[in-house]
Design goal:
Strand content: under 5%
Number of helices: 6
CATH architecture: Up-down Bundle
Radius of gyration: 17 Å
Distance between the termini: 41 Å
Low-confidence stretches: none
Number of strands: 0
Largest sheet: none
CATH class: Mainly Alpha
CATH topology: Four Helix Bundle (Hemerythrin (Met), subunit A)
Number of domains: 1
Order of helices and strands: HHHHHH
Shape: globular
CATH superfamily: CDP-alcohol phosphotransferase transmembrane (TM) domain
Helix content: over 70%
Length: 180
């Protein structure tokens, strides 16, 4: 357990707090917590890389924290009616498909190496930017148009492209399994 991992665990602890803030219509607080989570993500990544504090635990916890935060925010904003249900379904389904593929590859004793694709990084940036814009517009009472539609477009395209590329890579990886 090192400092970056402790920071990442702190980000995971922020997930139920931000969901509570959204559910109780405390959007300024939700936005502030989201900013804190984003800064903590940058800080733990910086410390891990620059101070040579990377670890296997951190490599697992960091994407888990990111996904827990984003999926929870999208679901909460979807329930609240702040984002369209189809974008929530798209974002959540992508993550479910990727996690399911990883689990299936483990079950077949053929774990797939986890290497984030550039489009996946762009997808995360688009998801974060869209969630931040929605939270900020709700918290500070401004109209996000047309930026909300532009970011929703980016989230849609990057989500579909990234899940497609991961699926192709997973099928290619799993096709080397020999039949019994």
């Amino acid at each position: 357990m090192n400092i970056p991992n402790i920071i990442t665990l702190g980000r995971i602890i922020l997930v139920p707090i931000i969901v509570w803030a959204i559910a109780s219509k405390q959007m300024e607080i939700a936005f502030a917590i989201f900013v804190i989570a984003g800064v903590s993500d940058a800080v733990d990544g910086f410390l891990a890389k620059r101070l040579n504090m990377t670890s296997e635990l951190g490599a697992l916890l960091d994407p888990l924290a990111d996904k827990a935060l984003l999926v929870s925010i999208y679901v909460a904003l979807g329930i609240w009616g702040a984002v369209p249900p189809w974008i929530v379904i798209l974002v959540v389904s992508r993550d479910i498909m990727i996690v399911t593929a990883v689990i299936v590859s483990w079950l077949f004793d053929k774990p797939i190496p986890m290497k984030p694709l550039m489009v996946s990084k762009l997808n995360t940036v688009a998801q974060v930017a869209f969630a931040a814009l929605v939270l900020a517009s709700l918290g500070f009472n401004f109209k996000p148009a047309p930026y909300d539609l532009i970011l929703m477009g980016f989230v849609t395209v990057f989500t579909l492209v990234s899940v497609s590329l991961y699926l192709v890579e997973w099928v290619r990886h799993m096709s080397t399994i020999e039949a019994n």
